[in-house]
Write a structure and sequence with these properties.
The complex is a heterodimer of chains A (337) and B (450). Chain A has 337 residues and is mostly helical. Chain A has 13 helices and four strands. The radius of gyration of chain B is 23 Å and the shape is globular. The chains are: A mainly alpha (337), B mainly alpha (450). Bound molecules: CIS-heme D hydroxychlorin gamma-spirolactone and protoporphyrin IX containing FE (HEM) (2 copies).
Chain lengths: 337, 450
């Protein structure tokens, strides 16, 4: 495999990692607010904050990793995304900032602040929506390059069915991933009242997830037929995704093996995400940046890959340590520590 | 109007974000080492006062780190949003340390999480202390990596240009450029200094407004001793930075010192004003001191600003930034030294009100020096974004909306800044150290140990 492909694979893995951990976090924000509105917050919010407080910084780093790596491996993307995304990008930063500070501020004081809870819930949905837009733009047809620079065609973006279907898909996926994880976590914590609630959420959000995926496919065929065709050629990858969806749903429905159920959900998104990514190539930002013309020079590419491997050797043991302390330490999960 | 000038607004927005971020970044780099020292002393001396210090500092740190992380994420994205052409070039040459910086954050974030939530989990407290080491290493490494990026902007190397293509890229040469050693030394030492100074300010301030307890006396002694050591290190590193400038970026030093003609035995100009002919008035002149600062020799020649083409000269007002920074540096060395002398000379009371008042100022002053130093360094690079290769105007976005975004971020930073202060106040006000000491370590009486 050439270094460009290793690079994009690594980045895609990180984005996938972010997709999972951030979805858990974003969805939890929404559920926390929803539970408050429906006066169930005393049952589930402790569970949510117990898991989230220690790990939110790690979640954020996944994202930083992705965009720093993207600029490193494919510097041209900095130019095209940078020029066209100033306004949506800035809005996403502000939302992320509000959310990030929530954790720190919340744990000391403003816990019962209704406005803050609302922002926490709302940003949980708005951030995925705004980040998904970057994905939409990379599909082509939304940015133009003229003599005085690169511009985003906002009108076109806002009236495109494809763009809206992606936003919808992002939001329901977040809620589905999050609720399946919380189901597992509540089960680990032996917290039956909370389990009953979050399991209901998981079942509820399963069918919208699959419907939104199909809609997005149809909208893609209208917007970028070439990409759609390539995706069809990879039908088996998407088929696996659907199969894992079925497994996950079945297990949750049965009320057993919640851990396996969540793993199945992770595989469901893994295959869908990599099927999407593979069929997107060779374009990174259509039609301006491809994987070959946009890549950095070979020396830098190889150096980054080596740095990456070195970094992983350092990080994976530390991450395992963190997970054993908070995620898999039964006493901690159950609130005894 | 200037609001529509996307280059100017990009510069202002970068200034705003970095100026805000650097406050939290500095604290994030320096406080962990203070925490680690305090916890270590607490374990070695079996003195819960120090352990409590470490605990309380950590609690404050969680809040500032959160703001550091969100503003850092902002600047990371803004670099691409505001300087797309610059990042395209930088991505090809200097992305290695940017990438490694994220690993350092990751490492730090993981261990900070573990450190925070495990105070009472281990039977042997040494294990908990050990968790602080990766936090110290991680935060200092992230300062190291990001500073090499900034050093590269000042002394770009490690590539060749062929038309508008970059060839023969050498990531390590780019990272270890001539500006790196002095810059890293000065940035890291000044971060440690500023953090120690802020903690000293807190202790001194409380002793001024309330009855001083042993806890605060110990806190003050520890933090002022650290301030003294780091202040000396900062001054030494700053002096080497000036020597670096004299050799590689003489125009920045010349503009900072109002030194126009190349000459031997050059005077150091402190403060003063310029008249319309660019002649210095009302200044204090220290004979030969500039030659000494630049080359370590009172007779060495120092290049003047007139050697630089007119359109490549940085603005002259950075002179004041330099002077303020250096003055604060001397003040920090001086006052912390005075305290140490009073402390060691048993005859004098080191906790007298005058000294405490002087010490209460060190934290804010050090933070101001950080801001002045960065403004001096960054504006002194003008008009270049990559010295000698790309100007600021060439690097900036052409989007017409930067002005609006400036207002958006200004509002965000006001909210974050106020929120941070309110929460910090809440944490410590409702829970003074004396009370916490009593509830956590009931066997220790106030007057127990000295
Ligand atoms: C507490 C903060 C602090 C203090 C007391 C000082 N500095 Fe400083 N200085 C910084 C904090 C700082 C900084 C914020 O860390 C800078 C900004 C950019 C950089 O590299 O470091 C800096 C930059 C900076 C530069 C420019 C480097 C460059 O652009 O490459 C020079 C020449 C000095 N300093 C010299 C000094 C001297 C001679 C000091 C005498 C005591 C001094 N500084 C005190
Ligand atoms: C270490 C990494 C840093 C990088 C890569 C960086 C990058 C940049 C860039 C791209 C600009 C715009 C070009 C210019 O106007 O000169 C800039 C300007 C500026 N930066 Fe830095 N910067 C760094 C550190 C800092 C820090 C920590 C501060 C802290 C206050 C700072 C203060 C400024 C200021 C004040 C300007 C505006 C200069 C002007 O108005 O002309 N920089 N920096
Ligand atoms: C262009 C300049 C800069 C960029 C792009 C940048 C980027 C970032 C990012 C992305 C984060 C958040 C990381 C996370 O998600 O955990 C961050 C936090 C931080 N930055 Fe900056 N930074 C810049 C300048 C600086 C400088 C000059 C310093 C040091 C002197 C610094 C030190 C830190 C530290 C210590 C943190 C983490 C706060 C903590 O966790 O303790 N940064 N920065």
């Amino acid at each position: 495999m050439s270094y460009e492909y290793i690079g994009i694979t690594v980045l895609w893995l990180f984005l996938y990692g972010y997709l999972i951990v951030a979805s858990i976090d974003f969805g939890a924000g929404f559920f926390a607010y929803y539970a408050r509105l429906t006066k169930q917050d005393h049952i589930i919010n402790k569970l949510i904050s117990r898991y989230l407080s220690p790990v939110w910084e790690v979640t954020n780093v996944f994202f930083v990793f992705f965009f720093v790596g993207l600029v490193g491996f494919f510097p041209d993307t900095a130019y095209y995304f940078g020029q066209s995304l100033l306004v949506p990008g800035s809005i996403a930063i502000v939302l992320l900032a509000i959310r990030g500070s929530f954790y720190a501020f919340e744990s000391y004081g403003s816990k019962d602040n209704h406005v803050y809870m609302f922002l926490y819930g709302a940003t949980g949905l708005l951030i995925p929506a705004s980040l998904a837009t970057a994905m939409t733009i990379s599909e082509g047809g939304f940015i133009e390059e003229t003599a005085n620079g690169v511009h985003l065609m906002i009108g076109k973006l806002l009236t495109s069915p494809y763009s809206w279907s992606v936003v919808l898909l992002a939001i329901v996926s977040v809620l589905y991933i999050s609720s399946t994880f919380l189901t597992y976590y509540a089960h680990r914590a032996d917290d039956d009242p909370a389990l009953a609630i979050v399991r209901k959420y998981a079942l509820f959000w399963s069918s919208p997830t699959i419907i939104a995926s199909l809609t997005t496919f149809i909208a893609l065929s209208q917007h970028n037929f070439a990409h759609f065709q390539k995706a069809i050629e990879l039908w088996w990858v998407f088929g696996l995704s659907v199969a894992f969806f079925m497994i996950g749903l079945f297990l949750i429905y049965q009320g057993k093996y919640y851990g396996w159920a969540f793993i199945a959900v992770m595989f469901q998104f893994f295959f869908a995400f990599f099927g999407y990514g593979a069929s997107h190539l060779p374009y990174i930002i259509k039609p301006f940046v491809t994987i070959t013309n946009g890549a950095t020079n070979e020396t830098m590419g190889l150096t980054l890959i080596i740095a990456f491997i070195g970094g992983l050797l350092l990080l994976i043991p530390s991450l395992i340590m963190l997970m054993r302390m908070f995620l898999f330490d039964a006493d901690y999960v159950q609130g005894k520590k | 109007m200037f609001f529509e000038d996307s280059v100017l607004m990009s510069r202002l927005l970068t200034f705003l974000t970095l100026g805000f971020h650097v406050i939290f970044a500095t604290v994030g780099v320096g406080i962990p080492i203070m925490i680690s020292i305090a916890e270590w002393i607490g374990i070695k001396k079996k003195d819960p006062h120090y352990t409590l210090l470490a605990r309380r500092w950590t609690r404050g740190l969680t809040i500032t780190v959160a703001v550091g992380v969100v503003t850092g994420t902002a600047i990371g994205l803004q670099l691409s949003l505001l300087w797309p052409s610059f990042m395209k070039v930088a991505g090809n040459v200097i992305s290695l340390p940017l990438f490694m910086e994220v690993f350092a954050f990751f490492f730090e974030a993981i261990f900070l999480g573990a450190y925070l939530y495990t105070w009472d989990r281990f039977k042997n407290p040494i294990y908990h202390w050990l968790l602080s080491i990766p936090v110290v290493i991680g935060s200092t490494l992230s300062a190291f990596f990001i500073t090499t990026v900034n050093a590269f902007m000042n002394a770009p190397q490690g590539f060749e240009t062929e038309g508008d293509k970059l060839v023969a890229v050498d990531p390590f040469a780019a990272m270890f450029n001539p500006a790196t050693p002095t810059k890293v030394a000065h940035v890291v030492s000044s971060s440690y200094l500023t953090s120690a100074a802020i903690l000293a300010t807190i202790a001194a301030f409380i002793m001024l407004v309330r009855k001083s307890s042993i806890y605060h006396k110990k806190a003050l002694k520890l933090t002022v001793a650290a301030t003294f050591i780091f202040a000396v290190a900062t001054a030494v590193a700053g002096d080497s930075s000036a020597k670096y400038l004299a050799e590689y970026q003489p125009e920045k030093l010349a503009a900072g010192e109002w030194h126009f003609e190349t000459e031997k035995n050059a005077d150091l100009i402190v403060f003063g004003t310029l008249n319309e002919n660019n002649e210095v008035e009302n200044a204090i002149r220290i004979p030969g001191a500039l030659s000494f600062l630049a080359h370590g020799d009172f007779n060495a020649p120092v290049e003047g600003l007139n050697e630089t083409p007119e359109d490549e000269r940085p603005p002259l007002w950075i002179h004041y930034m330099f002077d303020f920074m250096v003055m604060i540096g001397f003040y920090l060395v001086g006052i912390s030294f005075l305290f140490l002398v009073f402390w060691k000379m048993k005859r004098w009371n080191e906790f007298n009100r005058w000294l405490l008042t002087g010490l209460a100022a060190v934290g804010p002053l050090a933070m101001l020096a950080i801001e002045f130093g960065w403004i001096f360094s960054e504006v002194g690079r003008q008009p270049w974004i990559l010295r000698g290769f790309m100007t600021v105007a060439e690097g900036a976005t052409t989007s017409p909306h930067v002005g609006l975004m400036f207002l958006l971020f200004l509002a965000l930073y006001i909210v974050l800044g106020v929120g941070c202060l309110v929460v910090l106040r809440k944490i410590f006000k409702n829970n003074p150290a004396e009370l916490e000491l009593e509830s956590r370590y009931p066997h220790v009486k106030e007057s127990d140990k000295e």
